[in-house]
Design goal:
single chain, 202 residues, 7-stranded antiparallel beta sheet, 4-stranded mixed beta sheet, globular
């Protein structure tokens, strides 16, 4: 388990998402599955657990999903800080086809930061309070990942006094990325999954 100090003394931050991802990766690999990927959503700020002995643990809440292809079927499984849920078969998911057709491109794609032009100047706008996303791929033993924030996919952050939009000048180029096309396809399936009562695995 990985620990690091977070801002105040006697408080350790736990990264449990990587542990579970590694565990699931081992399980899939042992079953001969070599085509899968993870999508993780991490909270903007940590939650803190205080114990009676004055110890504190902080952790970033996360929700992750693993997608894999097995025997001509595609599965999705949810896991979070509390553990794993029963996997489910999903229908009509074209994500793996998208990956196969664009693998090299997706390995090199980069989601650009939120940038805007105000008073004729181009500035990068950083929003520290935003959900973070991570796509981690294991495709035929080819492993890579891509990270980005939700704000980087926003079209604008409001309006200035003149009524003009404060536009993200990277909005269109970010939305055209294959990695974001896959992200959108995954979110459609995740929304369906979240409507179902899932059984938590022991």
């Amino acid at each position: 388990m990985f620990f690091f100090f977070y801002n105040f003394s006697n408080c350790q931050t736990i990264d449990k998402s990587d542990l579970l991802r590694q565990e699931i990766t081992s399980e899939l690999s042992e079953n001969g599955i070599d085509k899968f990927f993870f999508l993780k959503k991490t909270s903007p700020s940590p939650s803190v657990i205080e114990y009676e002995d004055n110890r504190r643990e902080s952790y970033f809440e996360f929700t992750s999903y693993v997608f894999w292809e097995e025997n001509s079927k595609i599965y999705i499984q949810k896991f979070d800080f509390s553990g794993k849920y029963q996997p489910r078969v999903i229908e009509s998911f074209s994500g793996f086809q998208l990956i196969s057709q664009n693998l090299q491109k997706m390995k090199n794609e980069f989601v650009k930061p939120y940038e805007e032009i105000v008073d004729g100047k181009q500035n990068q706008f950083v929003n520290p309070i935003q959900y973070k996303f991570n796509l981690h791929f294991n495709i035929y033993k080819d492993e890579f990942e891509n990270n980005f924030g939700e704000f980087e996919l926003e079209k604008n952050r409001g309006f200035i006094n003149s009524g003009a939009e404060i536009k993200n000048i990277n909005y269109i180029s970010n939305r055209e990325l294959k990695i974001i096309e896959l992200f959108t396809l995954c979110n459609i399936e995740i929304q369906k999954l979240e409507k179902v009562k899932l059984e938590r695995l022991k």
